[in-house]
Amino acid sequence: MEKLTVVKIGGKVINEEAALDAFLKKFALIKGKKILIHGGGNIASDWQRKMGVEPKMIQGRRITDKDTIEVVTMIYAGLNKKIVAKLQGLDNQAIGLSGADLNVIKSHKRMNLVIDYGYVGDIEGVNAGVINALMNLEATPVVCALTHDNSGQLLNTNADTIASAVATGMSESYDVDLVYCFEQPGVLSDFENKIVIPVIVKKDYDGLKNSGTISDGMIPKIDNAFAAIDAGVGQVKICHFDAIDTVHAAEYSGTVICQK
Amino acid sequence: MEKLTVVKIGGKVINEEAALDAFLKKFALIKGKKILIHGGGNIASDWQRKMGVEPKMIQGRRITDKDTIEVVTMIYAGLNKKIVAKLQGLDNQAIGLSGADLNVIKSHKRMNLVIDYGYVGDIEGVNAGVINALMNLEATPVVCALTHDNSGQLLNTNADTIASAVATGMSESYDVDLVYCFEQPGVLSDFENKIVIPVIVKKDYDGLKNSGTISDGMIPKIDNAFAAIDAGVGQVKICHFDAIDTVHAAEYSGTVICQK
């Protein structure tokens, strides 16, 4: 099957334009078909405050109320167009998408009887045929963390989950490598000394969680990774965004997550 | 040739969500292939001030400096995604585009030795083949007033001019109707009594300008209209956005601009 690289970026690489430019230069050189998924970094909260909308949290979770979704929409969509223009400048034909564009991601507003998260999307599925049609126009889809409820409302949607869903949706037609880029060199067994766990297989994952080696924010990321693998994605890589040029090379030094 | 309706909206219909919703409901019912082009209304200036960026003007022309293009990008792109989601909710498959997406509009930064307009785009051409490929996915392109310089920079670009350029670019393959929607019922001969000029042909245009019947802001709009007609667009209609459901009907009561 043809290779497809699905890359998710977020955090610092989004917050700092020089870091984003350096990342995109390397991303543009990845050969073959590829898809880029991006979050909004901390820009969302920063701009929200500038616009006089104080970010709302309940039990540590962001609540996306009416004002927040307006601001988040502008920030994610604006960033999306900036990335597309930058990729065009790097000779990569690109097209920016939210889940609403061509209905590429089907989702609904999260229903939760305990906490009302507001305008937050849970993904139902990905329209692989349409994404494929766009890639056949020689374009790299650039997907932001917005989906829609098919009734006219945009929804704030976790970018890690979008990446997992897109990789899964495309795995019927492609040999998909899903790459999560972030600020660390990989999943760490020793945070102080930045010691990377080179490979995590399914049977060892529970043990790593129980021992506390893998904790906090890494758990949902690795859960997303295994969800993708269970659904047909070949392997998932978790690495520093500076290492995006090594994901298909022998010198890759991040974490590889695979079935066995 | 197959019919294609290219509609441009701006001003009040953008500023007020209820007006936008009412417009989109009618737009969604237009049969056949169609393209929607939108400006940013007054939202851009309003948000700019909220974000602490005072709009800059020189000789009555807006200057798009570095801070302004950042804000304008967020506002236009965010509005673009909102319109796409609303159209999906109205059973219209839609895709949001800036000129950078799939390089659909080729442009460059305006060069002016007297006034530096900043990050403002002048259009070189439209990639009709790509727009056609998207329409063949049964999608209505929704184009915002952003283009790019092909070197990574987004550019603020007049939406009337984009509409004229897109209509022109598509006129080789389609029988194009270009429709400019705004707050008035058409081009007026009597502003007080809202008397519409039903038809303006080329040979009469200079006379209408010289007599002062057509003046100010209408002149660049009608210039754009005749530029499109000279380049192959069948006819241009100028009407109230509430009248969008009559553009192909006998009861159309706006202005028609045509060669003769």
Automatic annotation (TrEMBL), chains A, B:
UniProt domain Aspartate/glutamate/uridylate kinase: residue ranges: 3-239
The keyword Cell inner membrane belongs to this UniProt entry's keyword annotation: no
InterPro entries given in the database record: AceGlu_kinase-like_sf, AcgluKinase_fam, Asp/Glu/Uridylate_kinase
Keywords: Amino-acid biosynthesis, Arginine biosynthesis, ATP-binding, Kinase, Nucleotide-binding, Transferase
Stored CDD domains: AAK_NAGK-like
Pathways involved: Amino-acid biosynthesis; L-arginine biosynthesis; N(2)-acetyl-L-ornithine from L-glutamate: step 2/4
Catalytic activity reported: N-acetyl-L-glutamate + ATP = N-acetyl-L-glutamyl 5-phosphate + ADP
Catalytic activity, EC: 2.7.2.8
GO molecular function, one term: acetylglutamate kinase activity
Pfam families: AA_kinase
UniProt protein name: Acetylglutamate kinase
